[in-house]
Amino acid sequence: MALNTSHAPAIAAPGAASSVTGAQVATALREAGIAALLTLGLSIPILAFKTEQNQSNALYLQPRWGVVAVVCGLIFLVRFAVCLRAMRRAAAPARLKAPASPFVQKLFGIAVPLFLGVALTYPLLASLATGGLAGARYWIDLGILILTYVMLGWGLNIVVGLAGLLDLGYVAFYAVGAYSYALLSTTFGWSFWLCLPLAGILAAFWGIILGFPVLRLRGDYLAIVTLAFGEIIRLVLINWVELTNGGAGISSIPRVTFFGVPFDSSENGFASLFGISYSPMHRMVFLYYLILVLALVTNVVTIRLRRLPVGRAWEALREDEIACRSLGINTRNTKLTAFAIGAMFGGFAGSFFAVRQGFVSPESFNFLESAIILSIVVLGGMGSQVGVAVAAIIMVGAPELLRNLGFLKQVFGADFDPNEYRLLIFGLAMVAMMVWRPRGLVGHREPSMVLTERKAISGSLVKEGHG
Amino acid sequence: MEVFVQQLINGLTLGSIYGLIAIGYTMVFGIIGMINFAHGDVFMLSAFIALMLFLFVTAWLGIGSIAIALIIVMIGAMLLTSLWGWTLERMAYRPLRGSFRLAPLISAIGVSIFLSNFVQVSQGARNKPIPPMVRDVIVLFERDGYAVALSYKQIIIMLTTAVLLAIFWYVVQKTPLGRAQRACEQDRRMAALVGIDVDRTISLTFVMGASLAAVAGTMYLLYYGVVSFADGFVPGVKAFTAAVLGGIGSLPGAVLGGLIIGLVETLWSAYFSIEYKDVAAFSLLAIVLIFMPSGILGRPEVEKV
């Protein structure tokens, strides 16, 4: 952990555009030394000792100064590098940041069809790369996971990015969707295609129920109340054992069917219907395309809604609520539709989650999920559809990469599990993201209305709303 | 009646701990208008620091007297947690001052996730129990075989809270630091113009909040004798509820709110259902924010156009 760079001395002599003087190196060394000393202070006792239990279950302290030395050394190096970089930056002539150069805009023009093409052919590409459909199982599964988060991100983007209402309890609607499908299909035996719209409607209904009391709240207060609602729904799911089977969850949820044709090796299964040999991967590929279609529907609906009066009212609400009210926009209905439509897509994603897993339990819907979805929306640059998709790939895909870094085991020993550090790094990344790019990855926005020519506008001109 | 009195005592003890955490929320919100979402995890971290200091003091230094050990542990935990509070403010919040409005909140959520996972990775996911430090109880009265007891540790917790509240109230009301804090709370730019070091004042506010969280952490450890990495979130939300209920920005309000939340929680557990006690606390938070956003002792917020 390095300190921020704001107090780093950063004035260099003119002409020293890219080189750093000896005095500056000395300053950087001193800064790095202070950071390392601070880390040493923070390490006592939480990192320097480990609490272990002995035979009689009593705790004792196990010193591990080696770890502290490694961490302090790392901090020293990171701080040193950050300091030098800041000095070099300050020495270089200042450049004005253009909102979006034509080249970047052109790049975005290519990026969307490219993404779409890759997404459409992904199962094929994955099986070609790994040599066969069965080998691509892991990659297709990862693709499904990423697309689920893309869809959730797009759904939350309606509430947070367009209407400017900070919702920290979005996972509640995901849970409502998942439990709707789980309960309706196991109790009444209804099919996925009947339950999917029902789950969306139920989630939208809950969006209105939870949205109604918070209409007057703004900003941080709204965030905390939505967080409380999300937690209440999770706690009710845990404790209402008669309905939800409590913390044990609902298992053996019916699997997805190809519009009524089951994916199995029987006579009237999917494989024999199409005259191909049976493979369990057919279901995976179908699930992949199902979530791709659901996500694209979310995207198209959002883009179209932005042009409708209600979508324009959302964005106006985000920009200035008081001006909105003065112009006669019904802010209550506008907020409620944003909550309801955002929740509906959360519900769709939830019922997809249930049909994919075949099992739901309250543990899947904790606050961390909400935080992940929100940080996808923020990292994507709130309001930008492409940004959300890129952010979802980074946020969900990068931790998966961490899981596969086998060489780390050779460096840190056999019992080193990189996966343990996933959330630790995730938390740090959230902070770093806010410090370096609070406006997200995609710095420009598509205007929702144009007079003659379509121009991109800088993301920093877009407000983040009051509620 | 006996049950009620007993629950009253338990509720006030729990409420004292919530009140100590709530002061940290209320001071930070008062001065920079931000919900320090990570404060609950700072509290959890401080409980871990207290636990390790306690092991250190009793097992390595061999101090037998519980009173002396407890004082050393509390002061040590306050110092070390303050360092954490200062560093977190410096790293995660100060660079964001003047950034867009959601940035500090999201950064604080990141810090919260980081802290709880840092403790999990460095100390393991298991509950960490210690032998009870103080066992003695005073039996207040007994009727029909049900004894209403007030334990020494409950007395210690309530007394410590009262003394610390008095000290901090004095600091905020009577010292130059407190004056600077109240000035920053009213108008940061104006305070800077009259020569107050705003950054330093905000840093010290975080340090004060963290040190009170450390007292709460030590008291939590003394009361329950067990701590785990996941213990930060729910007490944090409850303490935030307490801060809002008492009127955010008000120091006595935070303690009052803490006591009310503690009482509601214990009485709800005793008379209704223990499973839904967190639901009750979260619902109370929503109800208070919706119907009484300025709290009991807070000033109503005026909307400026």
Automatic annotation (TrEMBL), chain A:
Localization per Swiss-Prot or TrEMBL: Cell membrane
Lineage top rank: taxon: Bacteria
High-affinity branched-chain amino acid transport system permease LivHM N-terminal domain boundaries: 28-122
CDD domains reported for this sequence: TM_PBP1_LivM_like
Alphabetical list of InterPro entries matching this protein: ABC_transp_permease, LivHM_N, LivM-like
GO molecular function term, any single one: branched-chain amino acid transmembrane transporter activity
Coiled coil feature spans: none
Topology versus the membrane: Multi-pass membrane protein
Transmembrane segments: 65-86, 107-126, 138-158, 165-184, 190-214, 221-241, 286-305, 336-359, 371-398
Keywords: Cell membrane, Membrane, Transmembrane, Transmembrane helix
PANTHER family: HIGH-AFFINITY BRANCHED-CHAIN AMINO ACID TRANSPORT SYSTEM PERMEASE, HIGH-AFFINITY BRANCHED-CHAIN AMINO ACID TRANSPORT SYSTEM PERMEASE PROTEIN LIVM
UniProt-recorded name of the protein: Branched-chain amino acid transport system permease protein
Automatic annotation (TrEMBL), chain B:
Coiled-coil segments on the chain, per record: none
Keyword Cell inner membrane: yes
Pfam families associated with the record: BPD_transp_2 (PF02653)
Subcellular location: Cell membrane
Topology versus the membrane: Multi-pass membrane protein
GO (cellular component) term, any one: plasma membrane
Alphabetized GO MF terms: L-isoleucine transmembrane transporter activity; L-leucine transmembrane transporter activity; L-phenylalanine transmembrane transporter activity; L-valine transmembrane transporter activity
GO biological process per UniProt: D-alanine transmembrane transport; L-alanine transport; L-isoleucine import across plasma membrane
TM stretches of this protein: 12-35, 42-61, 67-88, 100-119, 155-172, 202-223, 243-267, 279-298
Domain of life: Bacteria
Keyword line: Amino-acid transport, Cell inner membrane, Cell membrane, Membrane, Transmembrane, Transmembrane helix, Transport
Ribosomal protein keyword on record: no
Record PANTHER family: BRANCHED-CHAIN AMINO ACID TRANSPORT SYSTEM PERMEASE PROTEIN LIVH, HIGH-AFFINITY BRANCHED-CHAIN AMINO ACID TRANSPORT SYSTEM PERMEASE PROTEIN LIVH
Family: Belongs to the binding-protein-dependent transport system permease family. LivHM subfamily.
Name of protein: Branched-chain amino acid transport system permease protein
Species in which this protein is naturally found: Chelatococcus composti
